[in-house]
Amino acid sequence: MDLNGLVDKGLRGESVTRDEALAVLASSDDELLDVVAAAGRVRRRWFGRRVKLNYLVNLKSGLCPEDCSYCSQRLGSDTGILKYTWLKPEQAAAAAAAGTAGGAKRVCLVASGRGPTDRDIERVATTIAAIKETSPGVEICACLGLLSDGQADRLREAGAHAYSHNLNTSEEAYADICTTHRFADRVDTVERSRRAGMSACSGLIAGMGEADGDLVDVALALRGLDVDSVPVNFLIPFEGTPLSETWTLTPQRCLRILAMVRFVCPDVEVRLAGGREIHLRTLQPLALHVVNSIFLGDYLTSEGQPGRADLEMIADAGFEVERAGTDTLPGHRRHTGRVAVRRRGAGTDLPPNA
Predict the structure, then answer these.
(1) Is 29 exposed, middle or buried (0-12, 13-18, 19+ CB in 10 A)?
(2) Measured over all CA atoms, what is the biggest interatomic distance in the chain, rounded to whole angstroms?
(3) What distance in Å separates the CA atoms of residue 51 and residue 319, rounded to the nearest whole number?
């Protein structure tokens, strides 16, 4: 594995090859610090020492008709999670204000289900308005499932900055984790969000029994879709789900996965997401040398570490919280009313269909 070659590509904004990405995942524990340091050079090239904070607001919990095997909200699950229908706009605004008070720059509005109805979209539009009234500078990211015609445009008009919809795993492995929709359906929603002018956020879940090739293939698929943000989740094996006994990750494995994603997506926001506390454990600070974004506090149906602990970890590791008004993405990826399309090298901003 030529780490210097990987770094050189990353500093130019170029993705590594499939074989190079596989080599990162296959590296030994003895090489781990060298791999993290190499990925850290790429991270600092594009994002300095800034860490973006994101905060989840769960607008609707449980009651989902999909059978995603990793999810505590799946059809027929017996996980004991809290189930409720839509939060009122003022409730969501209060929750969002708590996140921004802790330093969150982006609020992610999440609702369980296959996808929203047009009535649901209007509910979310009203909620976005309420949040922007109390937290005017916050970025809003919606995560509502599969989108249909016109819905992405309506969310953009309502003030959503981004839309999040994870690919989760490779196309080849997708049928192993879900049968009620297809990998292609998820790709379609990511593409809809980009065409509407929103920043596309899409990531993966590691630790579901996948092969190294699946992790690399989903990372390359995300690069091909030109997403701006890649959340990397590590499976939380909820009791009552088909993957409840799947514990395949170590802290070292998690760091190699994060480094691989950074080399595939060098100039993209890589976000350390669900499961970091239970799988990275005491190595979480090392992950900050690779990622440039984390979730603050709790997740959808599981607790994270206290927000104060996150802030202390960031400071102790020598990083700083990204402030409101700071551009997260490098200049060639920023959205200014049109979709930034990534080409070879650093690229330039191009019209949506270029």
Answers:
(1) exposed
(2) 54
(3) 7
